[in-house]
Amino acid sequence: MDARLLDILVCPVCKANLEYRKADAELLCKPCRLAFPVRDGIPIMLADEARPLRSDEV
């Protein structure tokens, strides 16, 4: 994932900064407790596509 893209991407729900987890291919929003998938290098920034984070992931 391009570092410049990570600098401008924010959570579509709350507009918070996102944390990229390369091993899981996900962008995490800790305030919303959501994980957005990254497929083939493309972040899927749809709330319907996000999965809820478990308490141990936050």
Automatic annotation (TrEMBL):
SUPFAM superfamilies per the UniProt record, alphabetical: Trm112p-like
Family matches, as InterPro entries: Trm112-like
GO terms for CC?
A: cytosol
Check the record and name the Gene3D superfamilies matching this protein: 2.20.25.10
Q: Which Pfam families match?
A: Trm112p
Task: State the family it belongs to.
Answer: In the C-terminal section; belongs to the UPF0434 family. In the N-terminal section; belongs to the LpxK family.
- Name the PANTHER family on file: PROTEIN PREY, MITOCHONDRIAL, ZGC:162634
Q: What is this protein called?
A: UPF0434 protein AW08_00512
Q: Which organism is it from?
A: Candidatus Accumulibacter adjunctus
Q: What is the lineage of its organism?
A: Bacteria, Pseudomonadati, Pseudomonadota, Betaproteobacteria, Candidatus Accumulibacter
